[in-house]
Amino acid sequence: MEVDKYDFKKDSEKALNDDHLQKALILTTDLFRERRKSAIENVDNWEHLRSRAREVKKETISKLDGYLESLEENVVKAGGKVHWASDADEAARIILDIALKAKVKTVVKSKSMATEEIELNHVLKNSGIEAIETDLGEYIIQLADETPSHILVPAIHKTKDDISKLFSEKLDVPYYSQPEQITRVAREKLREKFLGADMGVSGVNFAVAETGTIVIVENEGNARMTTTLPGIHVALMGIEKVIPRFEDLGLFLSILARSATGQKMSSYVSFITGPKRKDDKDGPEEFHLVLLDNGRSSILASEETRESLYCIRCGACLNICPVYRKVGGHSYGWVYSGPIGAIINPQLLGIDKAPDLPFASSLCGACKDVCPVKIDFPHVLLELRRRVVDNNNRKKRVGGNLIQRLGIKFWRFSMQSQMIYSIMLSIAYYAQLLFVSGNQNRIRFLPYPFSLWTRHKDFPVFAKTPFRKWWKHIKHE
Amino acid sequence: MLVAKFLRECSKKMAGNSRDEILKRIRMGLYGSSLNEPGQKAEPEVVESDSLSSIPSASTESLVDLFIEELLKVNGNAMVVKSAGELNEFLEKFVDQRSLKSFSIWESELIRKFKIKELLEGRGLELRPSESKEKLAMVDFGITEADFAISASGTLVLMTSEKKPRSVSLVPPLHIALVGIVN
Ligand code: SF4
Hints:
heterodimer; A: Rossmann fold; six-stranded parallel β-sheet; 12 strands; 11% strand; B: 42% helix
């Protein structure tokens, strides 16, 4: 996918001015935080489980090549086919080819962020294949022709009223105000699609190397329908989703459900090992597993940020993040949002495509505290910030940001002697009076070049009495 | 742009397929060399088993109670039956009250032992095979037998096979699962 540079600042400003969105974000993220909190309260070895999960992920990623090879071997043994895709285009082409070869007309899809990454719906549509999202949230987003704004609650930015209107417009049904009515309409429409579809495309939550089993976690039963009813099942996974042993699932399933929705266990957990067996009465005839790299192997190459690949996509870091809770998912510009988006979007897309994201964090570390695999967000964010700055400097050596360089030269000059520093402070104090209104202790607007600062942050007011003088004064008293 | 794309395609072709490319990139990233034992197999290490510490070490009865409690929380229903007679009575009442006409069923141990298929057919219900998804879509309910029931979360574990098709618990609007209580 070719993407232009994303504009976090512009998009987040839009989100901040959307009252409607502001309410929806707080309401939903609060709800999920509460649920998570009460779900882990009764688990007394929660911290131990997190550490173990991190260890297992660390071990897996550190031998990823070997685990992927045994996964491949065992999927093939079970009768499945394995495809490797270097990038998004290749993955989309592989899936399209499978569909074209089997003359597929309709595809049902269960929720998968990886398919968003490769823009599969778009690719299928261009070849005249209808692709229908079957997760209720994703279905709503698809009807509205939008993109998901939360990895678990894709339609978090939509209100009940939005959805009622959308359904009556797009599906030719009356305006239903009750969620139950809306769910019923969706269920009826989708059931037809499940029965008629020739191919099902799903994501993967975990892929067990030692057995070749893929595990899909969900709450609506739509993923199980998607992977059971159509004649072909294609599962798309990022290469980091592999786990070594079947036994590890006990650990991962308990921490995933609790961190994501606060459930003890998700409503449906499907274990799929290969296609339908010879004597089976149902299940797909063909099973394809597509392994997607799309930048992941380059994340792996940096020891500083390798842990970004431990993520199990629970969404807890989004719900806790003071930035996500204000700016919402769309501000992050690409598939992943919140803290995890801030660290993987720039790494998957290239740092120059999303240079603002590593800065879209207060480094408060709340994400690190909730993350079930203990990703050290502040550490990774700082490393990425360093890369952004390096990248900018490299560019500037050619063009150059004159203002910034002059500013720093000036700063150095004024810091060199105490006298110059004091004089500068007094000048600053009097100069600022033009822009301070009343008793305010911050300045909201300054003219160019200082507007470069005040556009995004308030500027603190210089004190009338410098600290040094004040301190002497206090000491004498 | 076009030329760059063309060159990229060519280099891809020359370097072999994506599988080798990806594995090579991973090995370069991890070990600093792509030649580092190509094809190295990761052997899963044996680890202490990880589970929630709050596993109740309780009697079967209290586990059954806990299971029912958790199942109710997630909007399921449960019923303990102590004999073949009680089971039959429950099923008869269940299908009559809801005027159920058709069903789909697993051929599992308990289901065979208690002749549930015969019982329902005897009451005039129609058995629908699970091969045809169109037919199964219209069926009133499905009956299965759980391999395990997890008390802590009210979860059923169903293992599918040729005599135990996945669709039976999935497609019909109602699902009855038998769970054997073994002491
Ligand atoms: S980074 Fe951690 S908290 Fe965030 S989605 Fe991934 S696993 Fe969950």
